[in-house]
UniProtKB/TrEMBL annotation:
It comes from Streptomyces spinoverrucosus. GO terms for biological process: phospholipid biosynthetic process. This is Diacylglycerol kinase. GO terms for molecular function: ATP binding; ATP-dependent diacylglycerol kinase activity; metal ion binding. The lineage of its organism: Bacteria, Bacillati, Actinomycetota, Actinomycetes, Kitasatosporales. SUPFAM superfamilies: NAD kinase/diacylglycerol kinase-like.
Amino acid sequence: MTSEITLFVNPTAGRGRGAHVAQPAASAFRAAGFSVRTVIGQDPGDALARARAAVADGTGALVAVGGDGIAHLALQAVAGTDTPLGLVAVGTGNDFARALGLPVRDPAAAARLIAEGLKDDGVRDIDLGRVGERWFGTVLASGFDSRVNDRGNRMRWPVGRFKYDLAMIAELAAFRPFPYRLTLDDGEVREIEATLVAVGNGSSYGGGMRICPGADLTDGLFDITVVGDCSRRTLLRVFPTVYRGGHVDHPKVTVHRAARVEIAADGITGYADGEPLGPLPVSVRCVPGAVRVVGR
């Protein structure tokens, strides 16, 4: 493996922390004996082109500095290649870094752990989800949670996570279950009323909400969490338990396991790793060992 690594930096992650914390991460890598080059794109398309060029040039690892958004973009560059991915997580959610056992909001510690892993054969293969040509590492969300995302993304004020709290309150006021058509592997089409359907390669989204608590990054299967046609009162009662994964014990929640999933519902957007995929329907498949990662 070459001793050069590439830092793939989102300068706006964590309200500007991305660009700032790239420096201590780079210093930690250099102290471990690596040479470092930095990639910062003008926009997501330019950034991805630069990351893909670094991978094609044989960089020893691509290390994304930012949150789940830059991690998602980095996956598009390294999936299906031999180039390892590391994450220096300084964003808002950081769910992919948590799934890999990497430090969060401690760039020097994350860089040291990644450097040790690259030196000591601490690289492993994990599964990814794929929708068309898009890869994702954590969760594909649809339903109430994606409607909250839609509304929050349209809001210009306030900034940060608080706008999504307000978006959730607004969506609760208009809450209703949605008619879904769900197909698992090659089974029959299930027509259901559901509050949300989440397809988990990893266990959490939204900064630690363990929507698919049993998901395993290496088993070749998704965990699919379906929250049924619950009332607003039930949703409010069950929601706080998502952070520990306790919602799966509620009678309105079912969990399925499958390698391929088709989800259809009118007026619903799919989000993967917190990034919009576009309106349903979507066809999702789990690709075993699709990416090499550095983590615990």
